[in-house]
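Newbie here. two chains, one complex. Structure please?
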Amino acid sequence: MSTGEKESPMTTVVPDYQHKTKEHPVAIMNPKAEAGAKDRLILGWLWKLMGQPAIRLALWDGWEVGAEDGTAVERLVFHDRRALWKVAFNPELQFGEMYTKGRLHVEGDLVHLLEKIYRSMARVYSPTGWLSLLERFRFYRPNSLERARGNIHHHYDIGNDFYRLWLDPEMLYTCAYFPREFTDLEEAQIAKMDHVARKLWLKPGERVVEAGCGWGSLALHLARKYGVFVEAYNISHEQLVHARERARQAGMECRVRYIEADYREIQGRFDVFVSVGMLEHVGVRHYDELSQVIDRCLTPEGRGLIHSIGRDQPGNLNAWIRKRIFPGAQPPSLSEMSRIFEPRGLSVLDVENIRLHYAKTLDYWLQKYDRAESQVQAMFDADFVRAWRLYLAGSVAAFRMGSLQLFQVVFARSGCNAIPWTREHLYRG
Amino acid sequence: MSTGEKESPMTTVVPDYQHKTKEHPVAIMNPKAEAGAKDRLILGWLWKLMGQPAIRLALWDGWEVGAEDGTAVERLVFHDRRALWKVAFNPELQFGEMYTKGRLHVEGDLVHLLEKIYRSMARVYSPTGWLSLLERFRFYRPNSLERARGNIHHHYDIGNDFYRLWLDPEMLYTCAYFPREFTDLEEAQIAKMDHVARKLWLKPGERVVEAGCGWGSLALHLARKYGVFVEAYNISHEQLVHARERARQAGMECRVRYIEADYREIQGRFDVFVSVGMLEHVGVRHYDELSQVIDRCLTPEGRGLIHSIGRDQPGNLNAWIRKRIFPGAQPPSLSEMSRIFEPRGLSVLDVENIRLHYAKTLDYWLQKYDRAESQVQAMFDADFVRAWRLYLAGSVAAFRMGSLQLFQVVFARSGCNAIPWTREHLYRG
């Protein structure tokens, strides 16, 4: 069944507006145009579908449903019938699409509204229901070498200047680690790199390979502060240009090599394998390839760390995020991550879940992003501004309510006894 | 093909000895009785089957094979042909059987010999080969309520006086935690209880349920030091008698209740679920029942800790250990443990692998056990003494070379934000 005004005999929208809808969807908003009984039914049904969160939903003519008890300070307003029906029939994808196009808007805090919806939906829907399983198989597309490049280009090559507007000065686009509540983002990103380095008990002169190095900060930090040699792989060209320039300026080209290649193309033997924020883009069905790479490149006393967005149960990212923001991305559950370690005798030494640190990191990003709104709009357009705001706000909400996790997993070869006695060294000084 | 002298035309053993074999196997040992060519072939083949570890293997007549390079300070001596052939045809089970019966003995350090064999076998055999898979399905018997009681009775009800000989004064029969290298066993067992308590961030007055409480020390320690109320479940009658007496003497009966029942019979709602050293006895196919129990008994802000022997890959305990020492036991891999958490929206916050701490704990036990040998022999017999020595020594070797792991997993309900910000509090003071 397709949606749209044409099929609704109950339409009360003036034909002029209908015509405009096709060309300039935003223009249809008219608070005075009365909605029909079907629209009201759909709105009420949508609120129930969401699990009756403590928010209000409103139509373009001001008609409302939602929580009545005064806890609903956020309001979701639909601007036109077509937007309402699209969201009703495919909420996972169309909520994002309609928000991006400005055909619905949120009054009050966007993060709070999303968190309320996520939490109420989690109460209503089982994460292991057959629908979620079906969905899992339907949407996933394998990351071949070529498609992986396309997927990564889609997100990471949209301009270093854009990311510079709202990331920290080191350009770390992964979860920070806040040792204290009052640590700021810049300190927390450096603390994250040190947390990772300590977990890997690096020794000067060791050889480190980094899979998915972003703008190169971790590789540079490890080489400078811990005296190791790093080969850092990435398939985002724009990021590597920036990374190489920084290494050159720091006079560290002798210790850090940035290589434009896929993790599957890693060559050589290393004491340490590290990957921060790449696994999400690998896809579960490619974990055996990753496992082979790690097995091939690690020395007998080698160890590694994988830092990745994850989930408490197998499942997919929101459909809109996968379509518009992160094509090919798939955050794994721990049992899925085990497919990297178990088949090749890698022993998991330590798993830390720092989900709330990612909520805080994203909150910092969102605040900086909102302050840079006019600059983003000048670079792209209003749709882009809204899409990325929704992505950042939705991510804050997802980490806060636990639909996403952040796992740091430390591993070594099975039976290797050159491992730290306790984890106390992570928290010294 | 069955084994034994009767079927070997090459036998050189005097018929008198053959007759004695059936009644008193040990009596057959006669260093002067010459072994045949087949025995020598078998011995050489056995060494190759083991992956050619740096040990020597010897027959009853003094004939030897093994490492030639001087690294072989340990020697494994077979006392009779039947023992040799039994071990050759079913090494996993019969090595333990023959050692127990004194029909083979080890010169040099038993732990070192076992560790060398395990390590060389791990090099030769893939942990995921079809044989290991076959073996997995063949030997496992589900732990019904009744059989679980039988299995636990087999190991834990053989006498508190026996365990008192070689455990610490608190009678903790699980992996200790050694914050420093020089911590002794008694301190390390208390440190383990505090490590567990900190991981659970207990608050005075909270309600704790313990599944599988052993001789009751952890429950008593948590109640006394952390001011919580504990209901502790166990199906070993002997252990509970001891536990209740201790609680009575400590005047803590108002805060600790010991209940003789299976974990599946846990009733009530609790802030904390804790289980130290029980999961090994549950069996992977019962994890869904355990998961249900946890889900049923935890409050919305509840959290839990499971401390268990584990493995880097799915697999079974050594066949002899399962037959003679721990019937029904099955240490899980992390992917197998995930079956407890993932289906019911439990979020894993922290996994720590303290395998080397268990090797050290077992080393302490083995030393005390060896010092108490004459007392153990007076309680049981020489076969029992040898069987338990092999079990303890084999366990030291298994944890040291990584065929066994020790996982502590902390979890909370998905999306619960009343969790510690970092793990630093575990290492304070």
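Moderator note: The longest strand of chain B covers residues 298-310. Residues 5-124 of chain B form a domain with the Nonspecific Lipid-transfer Protein; Chain A fold (CATH 3.30.1050). Thread marked as resolved.
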